[in-house]
Amino acid sequence: MKRFLYPLISFSVFLAAWSGALVLFEVPTYLVPSPTAVGNALWLGLIKGQLYPHIWATLSVTVIGYLLGCTIGLLIGALTAEVEFVDRLLRPYVIALQSIPKVALAPLMIVWFGYGMSSKIVMVALMCFFPVFVNTVAGMRSANPALIDLYRAVSASRLSIVMNVKLPTAATSIFAGLEVAVVLALIGAIVGEFISSTRGLGNLIQSASTTLDVSMMFAAVAILALMGILASELLRRLHRRVVFWERPHGSSAAAG
Amino acid sequence: MTATSKSPPKLLLVEGGREAGLQDALSLREVSLSYQTDRGEIPALKNLTFGIKEGEFVSILGPSGCGKSTVMKILSGLLRPTSGEATIAGAEVKGPRADVGIVFQQPTLLPWKSNLENVLVPIRAQHLPIEPNRRRALELLDLVGLGDFSSHYPQDLSGGMQQRVGIARGLVNDPKVLLMDEPFAALDAMSRENMMAELQRIWMATQKSILFITHSIPEAVFLSDRVITFSGRPGRVVDEIAIDLPRSRDISTMSMPEFNQYCFHLRSLFSDRL
Q: Contacts of residue B105 in chain A, CB cutoff 8 Å?
């Protein structure tokens, strides 16, 4: 219960300060809407259903792109960590591509993949690829050499070493990458929608800005924030469940 | 059974362990090994020759970097010597083989597997039948005093207990030889002495041949039938002494004058070299 109580308190204080400041400094409502106006826009949008197509569009490109980018990042990361040949082949390009702000590629993606969903999916996947890739490589390389020797000493196959030692060792690191990728995925989707789209929350924000509908812009941002929070929380739970052996320090019992 | 028969007479060795005392459980003959690096060859071992008999407990004592771990890797088939020959049970070591158990300096257990599953790692890695070996693994956990902890996870255990899981894992293959690479080095002094007594008990119960690598003189004297001392860079045999102390040894052994004489002798070997 306390988990929700404190954030709820700070949120109420925030809303109160927001409303208070608007009155106190006489901020015009076309610049900053009141919390009630944002709430109203959200409420109406959800009741009338005009927000759903946008939410659905952003959500679907984000989820598909995320799964795609993370899967590719994991697979190529595992190959790079395991096969030196692949590492040498890819390394210069990975470094080059990593230093480019991926957002700068968004217009190009629109040109290549069109105005529909696919360009946004590619954009999201591109954003998600790197954190997962980098963390998979680093995690797998941190596997204990003595454990690998133990498996090699009984002639275990390379695949068996990857599956039994290297990937589980990398799990924590991979999850860290997956969590970073959640945030980047939303950025990728919104940037893609900003540049060119017919629906999506990014599209909604942009069209609201042309009519100075700041309440709607705030409403869209609030939904994005909620999506980000929910996804991160989901991932944290998954992390705790999958990497069950990693417990907070001090909880281990027994001494001998 | 003649020495020229094609396959090593395994059955005879198992059943006639005692009279096969001539047979070395493991041996190194004129083994040298150099590592190739960018700056040329670095010799790690030079003309190493020694053997361990069936059921014998032998320690290699030497300073850090004397190639002790290289010896382990050669015997477990992970490294080929540049020249010379390593044998286990009379057969040359040509690659990884299942009849060697390894215990490392760190427990190196998998935190995502229960203690029982950790003991079974070599069995699963070789795709051997699990059921008969599960019973064996449980017996081994009993032997190392962890029968009640088989379904716990390694991180629930203390360092000494984890190392005992490591020893059970080293024995699960029923290996001919157990190689132990400074297994107690990471433990505190108290657990260390307990583990020494514990290892002696396990060794006496299983009758395995053990090659024990350490740089603790009292540890080597307490545990061994024979102590082989190494010099560093490249590793060479400097001296070899038989430890003629009654078994089973306990704390009182450590206060015997003979015990201290052995320790003094070994210590003087190293101080000469300073």
A: 146
Contacts of A152 in chain B (CB under 8 A): 78, 96
Task: Give me chain B's average pLDDT, please.
Answer: 83
Ordered by start, the domain boundaries in chain B are: 25-72+80-99+178-199+211-274, 105-174
Would you say A148 and A165 are in contact if contact means Cβ atoms under 8 Å apart? yes
* B98 vs A154, A168, A252: nearest CB: A154
Q: What is the mean pLDDT of residues B22-50?
A: 83
CB contact under 8 A, B108 and A164: no
Contact B104/A146, CB-based, under 8 Å? Answer: yes
In this model, does residue B121 exceed pLDDT 60? yes
How confident is the model over B94-103, as pLDDT tens digits? 888 878 888 8
- Whether the CB-CB separation of B67 and B44 falls below 8 Å is answered with yes
pLDDT of residue B253: 87
Q: How far is CA A205 from CA A199, A201, A213, B190, in A?
A: 10, 6, 9, 67
Q: Chain A: give the shortest CA distance to residue B194, in Å.
A: 10
* Interface contact A254, partner B, CB < 8 A: yes
Q: Is A241 touching B (CB cutoff 8 A)?
A: no
The top-level CATH class assigned to A35-240 is mainly alpha
- Residue B5 φ then ψ, to 5°: -60, 150
Q: In this complex, which of B73, B104, B125 lies closest to A160 when CB atoms are compared?
A: B125
The CA-atom distances, in angstroms, between B250 and each of A108, A255, B198, B241, B263 are 77, 23, 10, 20, 16
Indicate yes or no: CB of B126 within 8 angstroms of CB of A165: no
Does the domain formed by B25-72+80-99+178-199+211-274 have CATH 3.40.50.300?
Answer: yes
Domain limits, chain A: 35-240
DSSP B22-72: GSEEEEEEEEEEEEEETTEEEEEEEEEEEEEETT-EEEEE--TTSSHHHHH
pLDDT in tens, A107-164: 999 999 988 899 999 999 999 999 999 999 999 999 988 889 888 888 888 899 999 9
Of B108, B111, B122, the CB nearest to A146: B108
Please list the residues that pair with A6 across neighbouring strands: none
Q: What is the torsion angle, in degrees rounded to the nearest 10, for the CA atoms of residue B133, residue B139, residue B140 and residue B142?
A: 150
Q: Nearest residue on chain A to B96, judged by CA atoms?
A: A153
Give the separation between CA B159 and CA A218, rounded to whole angstroms: 55
